[in-house]
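Technical note accompanying the year-one report. For the benefit of new consortium partners, we illustrate the data format agreed upon in the data management plan: each record pairs a sequence with a C-alpha cell string. No post-processing was applied to the example shown here.
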Amino acid sequence: MMHRALSALTLLAALALASAAAAQGFTTPARNVVIMDAGSGAILYCDACEAPMPPASMSKLMTVLMVAERLAAGQLSMDTRFTVSENAWRHGAMSDGSHMFLPLNGEVSVRDLLSGLIIVSANDAGIVLAEGISGSEEAFVHAMNRRAQELGLSSARFRNTTGLPHPEHVISAADLARLARLLIRDYPDLYRLYSQRDFTYNNRTQQNRNPLLGAFQGADGVKTGHTRESGYGLVGSAMLNGQRRIIVFNGMRTMAERRSEAVRLMGAAFHDFSVTQVAAAGDQVGEAAVRLGGRRNVPLVAQSDIIIGGPRGVQSNLTASIIYTGPIPSPISEGDVVARLVIEGPGYDTQEFPLAAGRRVGRADWFSRAFEGLRLTLFGPS
C-alpha cells in the first residue's frame, strides 16, 4: 500500500523561503538560461537549461578540466612543453578564430597554453594541449566524452577541443554550470586565471572577453562563446556576501547585448533568488510503519543535504510529503532507501529526495508474527 504523509519537519515554513518555480515576471531575451547556486549546486532558474545546445568556446571548460585533472595526478606539470604542430598552427594561429599567435614548430609550456586557453580562448592552445596529452585531438576528444559521462554531464557530446561549429558538438547550459562549479570547487588555483584581464604572448597582448569582469562586483569568471549558430553566450560566476552564483546563457545577438544581459542576470541571481536547506544529511524527517518488525516504526533520514532554490518570496502552495510502499517489511538495515520526500505544488517542478532507514529494525518474535498472520487471514490488510 502506498503511504503519503506530511513530513515531521516544519518543511512548509522552510519551503516558504524558496521555490524552483519560474520567478513571477522574470523574463530574459537569452536562450538556454540557468542560474545556479554554486555552494549547493541547486538550480534556481531554468529556461531550457537541460536542452543540448551549441556551446561555442564555452565548451573549452571541458578541455581545461581534462588538463587540470592530469596536472593534479602528476601526469604533467606547468613546465611541461609541447610542440606546435602544423595542424594546430593552421586551425589555430592561421585561422579566423581566437588564438594566441603560436609559432609553427615552437615549444610552449603548459602554463602558457592554459593561460591562452583560459584568458583569450585560444583555439591553437587547445589543439596543442590535446595533441601533447593524447597524441591527437581526436583521441583527446574521445577522452573528453568519456569523462563527461563519468561526471554525469549527460547532455555533453564533444567533437573538438575548441567549440568550433559542428552539428554534433553540444552540451546543455545546466551541464556547463555543473562543469564550471567543478572547476571552481576542485581547482581554485587554476580557476584564478579566469579573472585575469589580459594575456601577453609572442609580443601580443589580448584582452579577456568576459564582460562581467570589472562590471559586476565579485565577478571572477568564467567563459564567453560565440559562433553564428550559438549567438553570443556566457558562463559567468561571481562571489558576493559569501555566496557564489553561476549563470549560463546563449543566443544574444551582439557583444553589447551579452554584456548588459550578463550584468542583469547576475544581479538577479543574487537579489531575486535564494536557496533554502530543508534538511541536512542525517536529519530525521519523519518515520514509516514497519510490518512484523521489532519496532512499529523506522525513522527516515535524509541521505544528503536537501536543498531547494528559486525566487525569493513566500510560496505558500508548496507541500512536502513522505511517500513509501508499506508497511515496510522487516528486517530493515540502517541506510536502506525505503521512502522519498516529495516537494510539489502548482507551477512547480516536483522534486524528490531519497530517504533512508535511520536505524536497523529486526523481525518481530515468532508470537507477534503468528498473531499478525492470523489477523491478516481474518481481516485482511488494514
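Partners are asked to follow this layout when depositing records. Residues 6-10, 12-22, 369-376 have pLDDT under 50 and may be disordered.
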